[in-house]
Design brief:
Bound molecules: adenosine-5'-triphosphate
Keywords: ATP-binding, Nucleotide-binding, Transport
Strand order of the largest sheet: 6-7-8-3-9-10
Radius of gyration: 18 Å
Distance between the termini: 46 Å
Organism: Lactobacillus colini
Shape: globular
Order of helices and strands: EEEHEEHEHHHHHEHEHEEHH
Protein name: Osmoprotectant transport system ATP-binding protein
GO molecular function: ATP binding
Helix content: 25-40%
Largest sheet: 6 strands, mixed
C-alpha cells in the first residue's frame, strides 16, 4: 500500500505582508523522488523549509510521516529528515568522519557503531574511507565536500531527504556525476523519499519521478517528467520547457 509521507493542506505563508505561498496543497508518497522547479523567488526553498520546520506556515496544515507539524517536536523531527544544502556547512575543524558522525554522536551511539556507519556511508557516496575519513573539509574538492554532505544527511538513516540546490555551485561535469549518483542512491535506498529543489530544468526532469513546477508560490504542474516536458499544463510550464529546447537548438 502506498503511504503518504508529506501532505500540505491549504498552506499559506507570509513574511510580514509579503504573501509568498497562497494556498498550497499536495501530497507525496513514500519512496518518490520529487524535484521542485521554478524561477527565483517562486517559493521553492520556503516550501522545503516548511517540511522540516525551519519555517512555519501562516495558515494550513502540514503532515510529515503521519505527524501534524503543529504538534511535532521540531528538533526530534529534523533528526529524522536529511538536509543537504548548497553551502554544505561542514565543520572546518572536524575531520570528514567526525563531520558525518555529528548526529549519531548526539544520539549517543557507541564508537564502534559510528565507525562502521561512517565507513559504510563514505562507500555509499563514493569516497574511499582510508583516503578521506581523516582529512579536513578544506582538503576536499567542492564535489567531494558535497558527497560528504549527502553522507552526513544519511547518517541516521532518515526516511526523508531534503536537497536545496545542492549542486548549483559545482562545475558541469562534477554536477552531472553527482546527479547520476544521487539517482542511483535513491534507487539503492529502498523507500526513501527525496525532495530536491533545483533551478535546473534538465536536472529536474532527469532526477524526478515527479516534477513540481512552482511559480509565484503556486503549483503550475505536478506530474511525471514526460508529462511536464511533452504536455505542459500551463503557459508558464510551456515557456520554461521552451527555454531548454532553445538552448539545445543554439
Ligand atoms: N526569511 C525571510 N524573510 C522574508 N522574506 C523571505 C524570507 N525567506 C524568503 N523570503 C521571500 O520569499 C520569497 C520566496 O523565497 P524562496 O527562497 O522560497 O524562493 P525560491 O523559489 O527558493 O528562490 P531561489 O530559487 O532564488 O532560491 C522571496 O520573495 C523571498 O524574498
Amino acid at each position: 500500500m502506498t503511504k503518504e509521507i508529506i501532505k500540505f493542506n491549504h498552506v499559506n505563508k507570509k513574511f510580514g505582508k509579503n504573501e509568498v505561498i497562497k494556498d498550497l496543497s499536495f501530497s507525496i508518497n513514500e519512496g518518490e523522488f520529487i524535484t521542485v522547479l521554478g524561477s527565483s523567488g517562486s517559493g521553492k526553498t520556503t516550501t522545503l523549509k516548511m517540511i522540516n520546520g525551519l519555517e512555519t506556515p501562516t495558515a494550513g496544515q502540514i503532515i510529515v510521516n503521519n505527524e501534524d507539524l503543529k504538534n511535532a517536536n521540531l528538533v526530534e523531527l529534523r533528526r529524522h529528515i536529511g538536509y543537504v544544502v548548497q553551502s554544505i556547512g561542514l565543520f572546518p575543524h572536524m575531520t570528514i568522519s567526525q563531520n558525518i558522525a555529528v548526529t549519531p554522536k548526539l544520539l549517543g551511539w557507541d564508537q564502534k557503531k559510528i565507525d562502521l556507519k561512517v565507513k559504510d556511508l563514505l562507500e555509499i557516496v563514493g569516497l574511499d574511507n582510508e583516503e578521506y575519513a581523516k582529512r579536513y573539509p578544506t582538503q576536499l574538492s567542492g564535489g567531494q565536500q558535497q558527497r560528504v554532505g549527502v553522507a552526513r544527511a544519511l547518517s541516521t538513516n532518515p526516511p526523508l531527504m531534503l536537497f536545496d540546490e545542492p549542486f548549483s555551485a559545482l562545475d558541469a561535469i562534477t554536477r552531472q556525476n553527482l546527479q547520476h549518483e544521487v539517482k542511483a542512491l535513491h534507487q539503492k535506498l529502498a523507500k526513501k523519499t527525496f525532495f530536491f529543489v533545483t533551478h535546473d530544468i534538465n536536472e529536474a526532469l532527469y532526477l524526478g519521478d515527479r516534477v513540481m513546477v512552482m511559480n509565484h508560490g503556486q503549483i503550475e504542474q505536478f506530474d511525471t517528467p514526460d508529462k511536464v516536458a511533452n504536455h505542459p499544463a500551463t503557459k508558464y510550464v510551456k515557456d520554461l520547457i521552451g527555454t531548454i529546447r532553445e538552448n539545445q537548438a543554439s
